[in-house]
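S2.1 Query sequence (tRNA isopentenyl-2-thiomethyl-A-37 hydroxylase MiaE)
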Amino acid sequence: MISELLAPINQFLKASTPDEWINEARKPENLSVILRDHMLCELKAAQSAIFLIRKYAVDKESAQQLAEWVKPYEALAYKKTGTLESLRGKSNASKQITPRADCAYSQDLIDKMVLLIKEELHHFYQVLELMEKKGVSYELIDAGRYAKGLIKHVTSYEPDALIDKLIIGAFIEARSCERFAKLAPHLDKDIEKFYISLLRSEARHYQDYLTLAEQIAGKDISERIAYFASIEADLITSADTDFKFHSGTPA
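Output C-alpha coordinates follow.
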Protein backbone atom coordinates (compact mmCIF):
# COMPACT_ATOMS: atom_id res chain seq x y z
CA MET A 1 0.00 0.00 0.00
CA ILE A 2 2.73 2.48 0.96
CA SER A 3 4.80 1.59 -2.11
CA GLU A 4 1.78 2.26 -4.34
CA LEU A 5 1.17 5.60 -2.66
CA LEU A 6 4.83 6.60 -3.03
CA ALA A 7 5.29 5.45 -6.65
CA PRO A 8 3.97 8.64 -8.33
CA ILE A 9 5.82 10.81 -5.80
CA ASN A 10 9.14 9.08 -6.42
CA GLN A 11 8.54 9.51 -10.14
CA PHE A 12 7.72 13.21 -9.66
CA LEU A 13 10.85 13.93 -7.62
CA LYS A 14 14.09 14.00 -9.60
CA ALA A 15 16.26 12.78 -6.71
CA SER A 16 15.84 10.63 -3.62
CA THR A 17 16.76 11.82 -0.15
CA PRO A 18 20.47 11.01 0.34
CA ASP A 19 21.29 8.25 2.82
CA GLU A 20 23.62 10.72 4.54
CA TRP A 21 20.60 12.85 5.49
CA ILE A 22 18.74 9.82 6.88
CA ASN A 23 21.80 8.82 8.93
CA GLU A 24 21.95 12.31 10.41
CA ALA A 25 18.19 12.59 11.00
CA ARG A 26 17.98 9.28 12.87
CA LYS A 27 20.50 10.37 15.53
CA PRO A 28 18.76 10.83 18.92
CA GLU A 29 20.49 14.19 19.42
CA ASN A 30 18.79 15.52 16.27
CA LEU A 31 15.23 14.56 17.29
CA SER A 32 14.64 18.04 18.74
CA VAL A 33 15.60 19.73 15.46
CA ILE A 34 13.52 17.32 13.37
CA LEU A 35 10.36 17.73 15.47
CA ARG A 36 10.64 21.50 15.96
CA ASP A 37 11.36 22.09 12.28
CA HIS A 38 8.58 19.69 11.28
CA MET A 39 6.12 21.61 13.43
CA LEU A 40 7.14 24.92 11.84
CA CYS A 41 6.92 23.34 8.38
CA GLU A 42 3.28 22.45 9.08
CA LEU A 43 2.58 26.05 10.04
CA LYS A 44 4.38 27.41 6.98
CA ALA A 45 2.42 25.06 4.74
CA ALA A 46 -0.83 26.40 6.21
CA GLN A 47 0.40 30.00 5.91
CA SER A 48 1.36 29.49 2.26
CA ALA A 49 -2.07 28.06 1.44
CA ILE A 50 -3.77 30.94 3.26
CA PHE A 51 -1.64 33.43 1.32
CA LEU A 52 -2.72 31.88 -1.99
CA ILE A 53 -6.42 32.01 -1.09
CA ARG A 54 -6.23 35.57 0.24
CA LYS A 55 -4.28 36.88 -2.75
CA TYR A 56 -6.15 35.15 -5.54
CA ALA A 57 -9.52 33.75 -4.50
CA VAL A 58 -11.54 35.56 -1.79
CA ASP A 59 -13.11 38.88 -0.81
CA LYS A 60 -11.60 41.14 1.87
CA GLU A 61 -13.77 39.88 4.72
CA SER A 62 -12.88 36.25 4.01
CA ALA A 63 -9.21 37.19 3.71
CA GLN A 64 -9.35 38.64 7.23
CA GLN A 65 -11.10 35.52 8.56
CA LEU A 66 -8.34 33.37 7.12
CA ALA A 67 -5.66 35.51 8.76
CA GLU A 68 -7.43 35.14 12.12
CA TRP A 69 -7.66 31.35 11.70
CA VAL A 70 -3.90 30.85 11.86
CA LYS A 71 -3.09 33.47 14.53
CA PRO A 72 -3.15 31.12 17.59
CA TYR A 73 -0.60 28.85 15.88
CA GLU A 74 1.60 31.79 14.91
CA ALA A 75 1.43 33.09 18.48
CA LEU A 76 2.69 29.79 19.85
CA ALA A 77 5.36 29.34 17.16
CA TYR A 78 6.77 32.88 17.17
CA LYS A 79 5.92 34.24 20.62
CA LYS A 80 5.54 31.01 22.64
CA THR A 81 2.08 32.21 23.66
CA GLY A 82 -0.48 29.47 24.13
CA THR A 83 -0.48 25.76 24.97
CA LEU A 84 -1.45 22.42 23.54
CA GLU A 85 -4.80 22.77 25.31
CA SER A 86 -5.45 26.27 23.93
CA LEU A 87 -5.03 24.94 20.36
CA ARG A 88 -7.39 22.01 20.79
CA GLY A 89 -10.09 22.07 18.10
CA LYS A 90 -8.80 25.28 16.52
CA SER A 91 -7.89 23.68 13.18
CA ASN A 92 -11.43 23.86 11.79
CA ALA A 93 -12.56 27.02 9.99
CA SER A 94 -15.75 28.30 11.63
CA LYS A 95 -17.06 30.78 9.06
CA GLN A 96 -18.09 30.72 5.42
CA ILE A 97 -15.38 31.76 2.98
CA THR A 98 -16.71 33.74 0.03
CA PRO A 99 -15.02 33.31 -3.36
CA ARG A 100 -14.29 36.29 -5.59
CA ALA A 101 -16.77 36.50 -8.45
CA ASP A 102 -14.12 37.68 -10.92
CA CYS A 103 -11.89 34.60 -10.52
CA ALA A 104 -12.80 31.50 -12.53
CA TYR A 105 -10.78 29.13 -10.38
CA SER A 106 -11.44 30.68 -6.94
CA GLN A 107 -13.79 27.94 -5.65
CA ASP A 108 -11.45 25.11 -6.66
CA LEU A 109 -8.52 26.90 -5.01
CA ILE A 110 -10.54 27.48 -1.83
CA ASP A 111 -11.85 23.90 -1.65
CA LYS A 112 -8.44 22.27 -1.98
CA MET A 113 -6.50 24.79 0.12
CA VAL A 114 -8.98 24.97 3.02
CA LEU A 115 -8.80 21.19 3.45
CA LEU A 116 -5.01 21.41 3.30
CA ILE A 117 -4.94 24.20 5.91
CA LYS A 118 -7.14 22.20 8.29
CA GLU A 119 -4.89 19.18 7.98
CA GLU A 120 -1.62 21.12 8.32
CA LEU A 121 -2.83 22.91 11.45
CA HIS A 122 -3.99 19.59 12.92
CA HIS A 123 -0.56 18.12 12.13
CA PHE A 124 1.05 21.12 13.89
CA TYR A 125 -0.99 20.19 16.97
CA GLN A 126 -0.03 16.52 16.66
CA VAL A 127 3.70 17.31 16.42
CA LEU A 128 3.44 19.59 19.47
CA GLU A 129 1.65 16.77 21.30
CA LEU A 130 4.45 14.37 20.35
CA MET A 131 7.09 16.86 21.47
CA GLU A 132 5.47 17.12 24.91
CA LYS A 133 5.36 13.33 25.14
CA LYS A 134 9.05 13.08 24.21
CA GLY A 135 10.12 15.90 26.52
CA VAL A 136 11.29 18.08 23.62
CA SER A 137 11.00 21.72 24.66
CA TYR A 138 9.98 24.16 21.97
CA GLU A 139 12.41 26.83 20.87
CA LEU A 140 12.08 28.69 17.56
CA ILE A 141 14.67 27.78 14.94
CA ASP A 142 15.62 29.64 11.78
CA ALA A 143 14.28 28.42 8.45
CA GLY A 144 16.63 26.47 6.22
CA ARG A 145 17.45 27.27 2.61
CA TYR A 146 14.95 24.89 0.98
CA ALA A 147 11.73 26.87 0.53
CA LYS A 148 13.56 30.14 -0.11
CA GLY A 149 15.72 28.36 -2.67
CA LEU A 150 12.59 27.39 -4.60
CA ILE A 151 10.58 30.60 -4.18
CA LYS A 152 13.32 32.85 -5.54
CA HIS A 153 12.77 31.27 -8.96
CA VAL A 154 9.08 32.26 -9.15
CA THR A 155 8.38 34.42 -12.19
CA SER A 156 7.18 38.00 -11.67
CA TYR A 157 4.06 38.04 -13.86
CA GLU A 158 0.62 36.48 -13.48
CA PRO A 159 -0.89 33.94 -13.84
CA ASP A 160 2.51 32.27 -14.25
CA ALA A 161 3.59 33.40 -10.77
CA LEU A 162 0.61 31.58 -9.23
CA ILE A 163 1.33 28.48 -11.32
CA ASP A 164 4.97 28.50 -10.15
CA LYS A 165 3.84 28.79 -6.51
CA LEU A 166 1.49 25.84 -6.95
CA ILE A 167 4.24 23.74 -8.56
CA ILE A 168 6.55 24.60 -5.66
CA GLY A 169 3.79 23.58 -3.23
CA ALA A 170 3.58 20.22 -5.00
CA PHE A 171 7.33 19.65 -4.64
CA ILE A 172 7.39 20.59 -0.96
CA GLU A 173 4.51 18.23 -0.16
CA ALA A 174 5.99 15.42 -2.30
CA ARG A 175 9.39 15.77 -0.62
CA SER A 176 7.82 15.78 2.83
CA CYS A 177 5.95 12.58 1.99
CA GLU A 178 9.11 10.92 0.65
CA ARG A 179 11.13 11.89 3.73
CA PHE A 180 8.48 10.79 6.23
CA ALA A 181 8.42 7.37 4.54
CA LYS A 182 12.22 6.99 4.43
CA LEU A 183 12.86 8.26 7.94
CA ALA A 184 9.97 6.55 9.77
CA PRO A 185 11.54 3.05 10.12
CA HIS A 186 14.60 4.54 11.85
CA LEU A 187 12.69 6.32 14.65
CA ASP A 188 10.83 5.27 17.81
CA LYS A 189 7.68 3.28 17.12
CA ASP A 190 5.31 6.08 18.12
CA ILE A 191 7.01 8.55 15.77
CA GLU A 192 7.19 5.92 13.03
CA LYS A 193 3.44 5.32 13.34
CA PHE A 194 2.74 9.07 13.24
CA TYR A 195 4.91 9.67 10.17
CA ILE A 196 3.33 6.76 8.30
CA SER A 197 -0.11 8.20 9.17
CA LEU A 198 0.86 11.46 7.43
CA LEU A 199 1.73 9.89 4.07
CA ARG A 200 -1.77 9.78 2.61
CA SER A 201 -2.56 13.46 3.29
CA GLU A 202 0.87 14.63 2.12
CA ALA A 203 0.47 12.65 -1.10
CA ARG A 204 -2.98 14.19 -1.66
CA HIS A 205 -1.64 17.70 -0.99
CA TYR A 206 1.04 17.18 -3.64
CA GLN A 207 -1.59 16.03 -6.13
CA ASP A 208 -3.96 18.89 -5.28
CA TYR A 209 -1.25 21.49 -5.88
CA LEU A 210 -0.30 19.89 -9.18
CA THR A 211 -3.92 19.58 -10.33
CA LEU A 212 -4.57 23.26 -9.56
CA ALA A 213 -1.41 24.32 -11.41
CA GLU A 214 -2.42 22.36 -14.52
CA GLN A 215 -6.03 23.54 -14.34
CA ILE A 216 -5.20 27.25 -13.93
CA ALA A 217 -2.48 27.14 -16.59
CA GLY A 218 -4.80 25.58 -19.14
CA LYS A 219 -1.73 24.41 -21.05
CA ASP A 220 1.16 21.97 -20.80
CA ILE A 221 3.36 22.92 -17.82
CA SER A 222 5.70 19.92 -17.94
CA GLU A 223 8.65 22.16 -18.87
CA ARG A 224 8.10 24.34 -15.80
CA ILE A 225 7.69 21.27 -13.58
CA ALA A 226 10.99 19.89 -14.92
CA TYR A 227 12.65 23.26 -14.22
CA PHE A 228 11.62 23.22 -10.55
CA ALA A 229 12.38 19.48 -10.29
CA SER A 230 16.04 20.22 -11.08
CA ILE A 231 16.22 23.09 -8.58
CA GLU A 232 14.55 21.01 -5.87
CA ALA A 233 16.82 18.01 -6.50
CA ASP A 234 19.90 20.21 -6.23
CA LEU A 235 18.72 21.67 -2.90
CA ILE A 236 18.17 18.13 -1.57
CA THR A 237 21.39 16.53 -2.80
CA SER A 238 23.98 19.33 -2.59
CA ALA A 239 26.07 19.92 0.55
CA ASP A 240 24.26 21.78 3.33
CA THR A 241 25.75 22.87 6.65
CA ASP A 242 22.36 23.73 8.20
CA PHE A 243 20.60 20.50 9.20
CA LYS A 244 16.80 20.74 8.93
CA PHE A 245 13.86 18.58 7.83
CA HIS A 246 14.27 19.71 4.20
CA SER A 247 18.03 20.27 4.20
CA GLY A 248 20.50 18.89 1.68
CA THR A 249 23.31 16.39 2.15
CA PRO A 250 24.94 17.09 5.56
CA ALA A 251 28.28 18.80 4.99
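The chain has a mean pLDDT of 94. The longest helix spans residues 106-134.
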